[in-house]
Amino acid sequence: MKSADPWRFPIVVAQIPDTGLHRAFEASDATRAAMADLADLREVTSASASFDLTPKSGGRVHVTGEVRARIGQTCVVTLDPIENEINETVDLMFAPSEQIRSLSALVDEAAQSEDEEVPDPPEPIIDGVIDLGRLATDALFLAIDPYPRRPDATFDLPAEIMDPADHPFAALKALQSDGKPSPAKKRPGTSGDDGDL
Prior knowledge:
Structural class: alpha+beta
Number of strands: 7
Largest sheet: 5 strands, mixed
Radius of gyration: 33 Å
Strand order of the largest sheet: 2-3-4-5-6
Distance between the termini: 95 Å
């Protein structure tokens, strides 16, 4: 069974100093293999993350940082193995679970206003812990190109010559050419060809 959280790096919120906390870490070989399996990648050759955690009022924590990775994929055009670099920035607010509903409502109100910048809804702090590994995994997976291709790869459709008989109006044309057009019907009340009134 595939693990939903192959990369774990839990941080206890109560242990974050008032001055903030910086953490940088790398994924092990086993973790990278599990991530590749979970994301249906050929391989994850490297994965690292760096985060700064800043305590805010109400037990909230502001998390910023970046996730870097090198992943092996398969070109959707040539089926050749290719490698892609990922460098994803992270800027999220975490809040105690009981605050999520009210804070999300505030975000919805901001979205309905004419403000240009709307903050993202906060993420929940689960059991007093923020899992930076899971955060890094989510950021990495969201940055994966689902249709990777080599820079020089092109997808050319085969040139097909249409048979005139396959044209959608070919049947109609055939019906018209089978016989002469039928004569126009006389309307009631019109005179005949003998000139009588």
